[in-house]
Write a structure and sequence with these properties.
The chain is built from 3 helices and no strands. The protein is mainly alpha-helical. Keywords: Membrane, Transmembrane, Transmembrane helix.
Length: 103
Amino acid sequence: MRTLMDNLIAVSGLLGGIIISVIVYFITRKAGAKRRWFDERQKQVSSLAHAASWNITFAVLLIAWAVVILVEGISFSFFLMTALYAAHCMGFLFTSIYYSRDH
């Protein structure tokens, strides 16, 4: 029973962090719009940063996937990493198709 309680506390911490992040995001966007923080230069820098972050995440997923295979073998973690990798690649595919249209 102790493990279940520990897991619930951990998940509640994760959810709390997500809620705080969303609140901070909206406050920052509102303050930034008033102070004109989000000009074309900032959008270009943000776009380049997102692209680099995407490539780094791709490499980290591949490394984590290899570690899971070596440490745990073909188990739940392997299939979870496979699903994350597939979702990552599918997200890239769909956003590439979307933005390659006349945008």
